[in-house]
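[Discussion] Sanity-checking designs against the backbone

I'm trying to build intuition for which residues belong where. Below is a structure token string of 347 positions. I'd appreciate it if someone posts a full sequence so I can compare it with mine line by line.
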């Protein structure tokens, strides 16, 4: 069942993404040869009026084959019906539409889930309210009532405004010594803490607890809080990306194996957590696809803008080289992420 859930969740995200490309391409009269879910050999195919709809063997990814793209057959297709034959801004809309649809899907799900729950968990004040058993934090010298104002691990400094800031910072440095600055009795005190491995949780924990801040909301308020949840998720993704570029948190990177593990664990918790996972993955995929890397939608958008500014079209050879570099980088990233996933299986 976990495999089925994994395929279904990925399929929903991919279908929404590719529908964004397909609908905008058709709106601008670009000829679309095939709309495919999955990669590899075709296991089902049906020819529509103009576009063939296919399901392929590997449920990872999908594509819309548009006239004018590399590898497509453009014989007997008028140039103005190819992706290269329409205005540059229309090309950008088509390329960005998939990621935008993923973000819209995530936004819609966040609002609906918030509405169904009828309550939200607001960020808690960064005040220590308690400790877990055999807590590393208590042994380090923390006391109930301490307000955390800052954390520093190596050269990475985080100003703390809520308990979420503490959790996020420690997720990037789960095994390293962190210097906490806390307010206690009007004084600022520095406390050194190294998280400890917790067998029950199967992860490193600092061991202090906060007070939940739960608020009941009306259906109308769910629009506001669902939107805030999506915005918070988006900013967290960008913060993660900035840290990854600096080499921080690379051990947290996950590929298909890691996503499968998370899916298996989440779907056992019920329907709402599973739908929430769709929102989180859809948001991640939407933002990731807009990164300015060749082969990704964001990279293609950048190339289109460069062509417009320079007034020159890239040669097929140059475009092939750039796309090949993009594929190699993406494959290396996938291999590294999958290796991390496999290593975590043995921890």
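Best answer:
Here's mine. Compare freely.
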């Amino acid at each position: 069942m976990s495999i089925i859930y994994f395929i279904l969740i990925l399929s929903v995200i991919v279908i929404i993404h590719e529908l964004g490309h397909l609908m905008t391409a058709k709106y601008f009269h670009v000829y679309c040869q095939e709309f495919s879910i999955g990669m590899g050999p075709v296991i089902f195919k049906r020819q529509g009026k103009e576009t063939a709809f296919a399901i392929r063997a590997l449920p990872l990814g999908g594509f819309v084959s548009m006239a004018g793209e590399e590898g497509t057959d453009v014989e007997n297709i008028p140039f103005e019906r190819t992706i290269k034959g329409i205005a540059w801004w229309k090309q950008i809309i088509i390329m960005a539409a998939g990621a935008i649809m993923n973000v819209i899907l995530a936004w819609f799900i966040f609002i609906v889930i918030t509405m169904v729950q009828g309550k939200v968990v607001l960020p808690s004040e960064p005040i220590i309210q308690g400790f877990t058993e055999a807590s590393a934090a208590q042994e380090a010298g923390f006391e109930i009532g301490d307000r955390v104002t800052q954390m520093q691990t190596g050269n990475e400094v985080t100003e703390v405004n809520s308990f979420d800031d503490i959790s996020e910072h420690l997720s990037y440095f789960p095994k390293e010594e962190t210097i906490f600055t806390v307010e206690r009795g009007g004084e600022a005190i520095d406390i050194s803490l190294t998280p400890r491995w917790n067998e029950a949780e199967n992860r490193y924990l600092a061991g202090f607890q906060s007070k939940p801040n739960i608020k009941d909301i009306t259906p109308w308020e769910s629009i506001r809080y669902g939107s805030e949840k999506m915005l918070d998720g988006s900013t967290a993704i960008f913060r993660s990306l900035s840290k990854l570029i600096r080499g921080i948190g690379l051990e947290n990177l996950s590929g298909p194996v890691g996503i499968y593990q998370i899916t298996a664990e989440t779907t056992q918790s019920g329907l709402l957590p599973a739908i929430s996972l769709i929102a989180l993955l859809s948001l991640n995929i939407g933002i990731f696809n807009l990164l300015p890397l060749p082969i990704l939608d964001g990279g293609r958008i950048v190339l289109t803008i460069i062509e417009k500014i320079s007034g020159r079209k890239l040669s097929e050879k140059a475009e092939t080289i750039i796309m090949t570099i993009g594929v190699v980088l993406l494959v290396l990233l996938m291999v590294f992420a999958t290796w991390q996933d496999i290593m975590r299986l043995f921890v």
